[in-house]
Specification:
Blueprint lengths: L7 H4 L1 H11 L4 H5 L5 E3 L15 E15 L6 E8 L4 E7 L11 E7 L1 E3 L2 E5 L2 E4 L6 H4 L3 E3 L8 H15 L11 H7 L4 H9 L4 H32 L12 H8 L6 H14 L6 E6 L5 H14 L3 E5 L3 H15 L16 E5 L5 H13 L2 E6 L13 E6 L7 H8 L7 E6 L5 H6 L5 E5 L9 E7 L4 H16 L3 E5 L37 H10 L7 E4 L5 H12 L5 E4 L12 E6 L7 H8 L9 E7 L6 H11 L3 H10 L3 H4 L2 H4 L14 H16 L8 H11 L2 H8 L1
Organism: Geodermatophilus dictyosporus
Protein name: Probable DNA 3'-5' helicase RecG
Keywords: ATP-binding, DNA damage, DNA repair, DNA-binding, Helicase, Hydrolase, Nucleotide-binding
């Protein structure tokens, strides 16, 4: 037997097929790496009271009562079994089925989906496995493993399958340990066979803890080795150096800036300038607070590349943002952005906007300028990725708000260079250190925390509209006061309206950072819509003010006209979807009211809030919700309102999300290889694994002396997830 042995050879065809179809377990390795979700202790409380309706769970409980009666309104009988665990009770319901072996006093494992009838929790037709007594070695143990399971493959089937593997192999002795012995000794880790035995058949909680620490190391080190190898391979790629040259666009940008660069902007700018000057491609992640000036840093890098004879492409997530970037870059460069035109400077370049809504003639002209190299700075949306968009000499790819793009899209733009271009990925969604070391572990990271001087800052408050309706009235009064003082406001809604069926904004992510739904969310009213809210405000609390709407179904021309009118102060209040989430820059806007704020994620709310107070006036963000502040989501909104530190909020965000999704399982389309590693709890372990990975690969022989570890890395490297990591 080896780790690659098919389960069908050990468990039989029927069980193996069920495990493959239900749990994606195909080999001995898959089954051994399918760790228990938790452990039940016979006779201890497993907290039936804590179960939530809709959860599919396995519980350890004792039969308290069994009653069978004829049903009144239809033929047949109903058997009700009450089970308890010392902390609570629940009902098991069986229709027209006899279960004579369910007798009072019997202990068993019961698996099903938690339902509710007359305010009492119940399982309807649950699967169950009775514990037969102390002669059954599996059930006599102090800790009974409860595995992730499905209705077709129960926890006890997984447990018996692991036992079969154990019996067939004589104690997992066939498992080779991939970790170097000196590394295990340095960190006090048990061998892999011992860890697998302890995680699947522990005798104490200490066994579980010791095994979990070792198995987390397997996950962390393998990931970090793949990422370290990516970094080393990227450093060896043949790129093109783009050193700074005086008297060109970069000097013009610096001269045109109406403000002094912050210390952080200068420091990051020097980092980028040095990396662009090397002949190996830059791969850098620039993360920073909303409003910290990332775009200016990126523009200076683009100007340096153009000065060195290359082209720079800026990929933006929406047409509104792409148009704004193109407009602001052209305004900053002045005649230097209009080379070849009557009033242009021949020493400059052209700034070209390429979006999907361009008319055919304009699209042909833009593509021609990109292809012949006369367009040094190309700003666009997904249209940049289309066939027929060919660059003369693509030197730098800048991806703005990277979380809004799939990895394939970023990779497609990078592939348009004859030689690998430099890559700068930007995000205003701060990333916890552990995420940066994993999902973005193959990118060097720069951070901008300092905000430009002269910003007014944003005060945030939660408005519980149901509990305190007077607060909502006061919110609209407060907005009117700001408009009366000559300033402007945003009102943000989750959806558009009319024939919109409740889906999120079409050109914004569907709550990309995972706002959790409250229990019973299916009974809630539909999310508020821009078109409905705008009409209600126009006739009600904001009557007399100049209102306009902005959403993803409008034509690009209408969007552009609306944004221009808002920027020109011809509109007092912009009622919009999350199309304004990133990049929209109107310094005179000082108030934002987010309706149904509970339907947005933490990072998304932080992004939205960054649209106000971009000038010298104090800003105000009001998060309106109908949920109670005591609810989990209410507390999440309170956390957003209590701090403007995006990095602190990133940790709050991570706490509300499934870590497997953060680590890329959802985006790669595969199960996550990370099962035990916690981005919240294992920061020190991940950092240590990163150092060990770098040290292993820095030796002359690399992993040649560690074939087991090389095999683990190779297995991950051929996985779709490794492709995701490579492109990220």
């Amino acid at each position: 037997m080896t780790l690659e042995t098919p389960l069908s050879r050990v468990l039989g065809a029927k069980t193996a097929k069920a495990m493959a179809e239900s749990l994606e377990l195909h080999t001995v390795r898959d089954l051994l790496r399918h760790y228990p979700r938790r452990y039940a202790r016979r006779g201890e409380m497993t907290r039936l009271d804590d179960l939530q309706v809709g959860d599919r769970v396995t519980v350890l409980a004792q039969v308290r009562r069994v009653t069978t009666r004829r049903m009144r309104n239809r033929p047949g009988s109903l058997t009700e079994v009450t089970v308890g665990d010392g902390a609570g009770e629940m009902q098991l319901v069986f229709f027209n089925r006899r279960h004579g072996n369910l007798r009072e006093g019997a202990w068993g494992l019961f698996a099903g989906t938690v339902g509710e009838y007359r305010r009492a929790k119940q399982f309807a037709h649950p699967d169950f496995h009775l514990i037969t007594g102390d002669d059954d070695e599996d059930w006599a143990r102090a800790l009974i493993p409860i595995y992730p399971a499905t209705k077709d493959v129960s926890s006890w089937v997984v447990q018996k399958s692991v036992r079969l593997l154990l019996d067939a192999s004589g104690g997992f002795g066939f498992v080779e340990d991939p970790l170097p012995e000196e590394l295990r000794a340095r960190h006090g880790l048990p061998s892999l066979p011992a860890a697998l035995l302890d995680v699947h058949r522990p005798t104490s909680q200490d066994d579980v803890d010791r095994a979990a620490e070792r198995l987390k190391w397997d996950e962390a080190l393998t990931l970090q080795l793949v990422l370290a190898a990516r970094r080393r391979a990227a450093a060896l790629e043949p790129g093109t150096a783009r050193p700074p040259r005086g008297g060109g666009l970069l000097d013009a940008v610096d001269a045109a800036l109406p403000f002094e660069l912050t210390e952080g902007q200068r420091a990051v700018g020097e980092e980028l300038a040095a990396e662009l000057s090397r002949d190996s491609p830059m791969h850098r992640l620039l993360q920073g607070e909303v409003g910290s000036g990332k775009t200016v840093v990126a523009l200076r890098a683009m100007a340096q590349v153009v000065d060195a004879g290359g082209q720079a492409a800026l990929l933006a997530p929406t047409e509104v943002l792409a148009a704004q970037h193109a407009r602001s870059i052209a305004a900053m460069l002045g005649p230097l952005a209009r080379a070849g035109e009557l009033d242009g400077d021949p020493a400059g370049t052209r700034v070209v906007l390429l979006t999907g809504s361009l008319k055919a003639a304009a699209r042909r002209e833009a593509r021609a300028a990109v292809a012949d190299g006369s367009a040094g700075i190309v700003v666009g949306t997904h249209a940049l990725l289309q066939e027929g968009v060919d660059f003369a000499d693509l030197g730098l790819v800048v991806v703005d708000e990277q979380h809004r793009f799939g990895v394939e899209q970023r990779d497609a733009l990078r592939a348009k260079g004859d030689r690998p271009p430099h890559v700068l990925v930007m995000t205003a969604t701060p990333i916890p250190r552990t995420v940066a070391m994993t999902v973005y572990g193959d990118l060097e990271t720069s951070v901008l925390r300092q905000l430009p001087s002269g910003r007014g800052g944003v005060a945030s408050s939660v408005v519980p509209a149901s509990d305190k309706p007077a607060w909502l009235d006061r919110a609209w009064e407060r907005l009117r006061e700001e408009v009366a003082a000559g300033r402007q406001a945003y009102v943000v809604c989750p959806r558009i309206g009319d024939d919109d069926t409740g889906s999120a904004e079409t050109d914004a992510p569907d709550d990309a950072d995972g706002a959790p739904e409250e229990a019973g969310g299916g009974d809630r009213r539909p999310p508020l819509a821009v078109l409905d809210v705008a009409e209600a405000l126009h006739e009600g609390p904001l009557a007399g003010l100049r209102l306009a709407v902005l959403h993803g179904r409008m034509t690009p021309e209408a969007k552009e006209a609306t944004m221009r009118a808002f920027a020109a102060r011809e509109v007092d209040v912009l009622v919009a979807t999350t199309v304004v989430e990133v990049g929209v820059d109107v310094p005179n806007a000082t108030v934002m009211v987010v309706l149904d704020a509970d339907r947005f994620g933490v990072s998304q709310l932080h992004q939205l809030r960054g649209r106000v107070a971009r000038g010298r006036h104090q800003g105000l963000c009001l998060l309106v919700t109908e949920l109670s502040l005591a609810s989990a989501t209410g507390q999440r909104l309170t956390a957003v309102a209590s701090t403007s530190d995006g990095f602190e909020l990133a940790r709050v965000d991570l706490e509300t999300r499934r870590e497997g999704d953060v680590l890329g399982a959802a985006q790669s389309g595969r199960r996550s290889n990370v099962k035990l590693l916690s981005l919240l709890e294992d920061e020190e372990l991940i950092a240590a694994a990163r150092l060990e990975a770098a040290a292993l690969l820095a030796t002359d022989r690399g992993l040649a002396d560690h074939p087991g570890l090389a095999a683990e890395v190779a297995a991950l490297a051929t996985d779709e997830r490794a492709t995701y990591l490579e492109k990220a």
